[in-house]
Amino acid sequence: MIRAFPSFDAIRALVLPIPGFGDLLTSNIYVLGTGPVTLIDTGPKFPGSFENIGRQLDEAGFGFRDIERIIITHGHIDHFGLAVKMIEAAGRPIPCHLHQDDIWRTSNEYIRKGLWSDEVLAFARLADMPAEAVERMKRRSAFFKNFCDPLQNILPMNDGDIFSGSGFEITVIHTPGHSPGSCCLYEAGEKVLFTGDHIIKHITPNPITEIHRSLLSDPDYQSLRSYESSLKKIEGLDVRFAFSGHGEYIDDVPGLISRYRSHHENRKRQILELLQHEDRPIYPLVDELFPDIPQSEIFLAVSEIYSHLEVLIGEGRASMSRSGPPALFRAAEPSIASIR
Predict the structure, then answer these.
(1) Residue 280, CB half-sphere, CA atoms under 13 Å: how many?
(2) How far apart are CA 45 and CA 53, in angstroms?
(3) Going from the N-terminus, what domains does the chain have, and what CATH number goes with each?
(4) CA–CA separation, 91 and 266 (whole Å)
(5) Closest among 4, 62, 2, 75 to 32, alpha carbons compared
(6) Residue 117 class from Cβ within 10 Å (0-12 exposed, 13-18 middle, 19+ buried)?
(7) How many CB atoms lie within 10 A of CB 324?
(8) What's the pTM?
(9) Are 94 and 69 in contact (CB under 8 A)?
(10) Are 175 and 234 in contact (CB under 8 A)?
């Protein structure tokens, strides 16, 4: 597992193992307050996860009936999957808060139809993904539906909103990139930043390409560009510890952000090198950039390449030479000034 989280009177971490979810290690749920309590995220609806959380809540001196509200850092299944079961266990409504740009992800309509849709298939074809990879992606999407229950009547939260309770006060910081509605939550008293999947100690979070463009409030949204801007939003905070949605806590946020920036710049350079001599589609680049990636994670690799290409095109360092499908990309010719 992972090392124990720092101890606070009004902040507790509940840690769930999540086998089969790549290298995320754990799903972390945070309990704020001394009663009633606020939950940050719920974890996925894995077999045994609900019971595991119940035991950890009990050890902390609480039960599901003590939950006053649930705050969801972003609308991915592994962060809201158990909310409905928790509400049922409480025996009364519990308000659930999520940034308005991610609320659509938790709907019955999206979970039933959107995880696999014509838009997803069109993107796979744009990226030149082979039929067997597309079929694996389709099966994986169907599999993921088992790990959540759709949420209704979610309350939208926005940048700057404040939630308080016994022993804590947290401020919402909208940090789009991993998803359009991703948020961090800052507890200034203890200098703790709850980061969801915005920053994670042991991996570089994916700025996932948004395929369902018609559902976005910003039609020009680009995940990596937004992610890089969001990193700047948390840089100025006085953070002692960052508690992320997965893995261990972080005690050097500036150092981690610096490593992220180096990673993304290196990835851009790698992509440009692969596009120097011929126009190429995305999928063949996966083996060269991610030689050891498991087949189950191919879509994330394709998404990461596409997100970097969006930024490179915006910077004038690459272009789409054919819209496809499949789309072809090329590196821009270096200018005389850059050569000098």
Answers:
(1) 18
(2) 11
(3) 11-260 (3.60.15.10), 268-339 (1.10.10.10)
(4) 51
(5) 62
(6) middle
(7) 15
(8) 0.95
(9) yes
(10) yes
**Helix/strand/coil for 265:** helix
Euclidean distance between CA atoms 52 and 58, whole angstroms: 10
Which SS3 state, helix, strand or coil, does residue 148 take? coil
Mean pLDDT in order along the chain per 10 residues (340 residues)? 92 91 89 97 96 97 98 97 98 97 95 87 95 91 91 96 98 98 98 98 92 91 97 96 98 97 96 96 96 88 96 96 96 60
Helix residue spans in the chain (DSSP H) = 49-59, 77-80, 83-90, 108-109, 118-126, 131-144, 223-235, 253-274, 283-289, 298-314, 336-339
Percentages (nearest 5) of helix, strand, coil residues in the chain: 40, 20, 40
Kind of pairing between the strands at 183-187 and 192-196: antiparallel
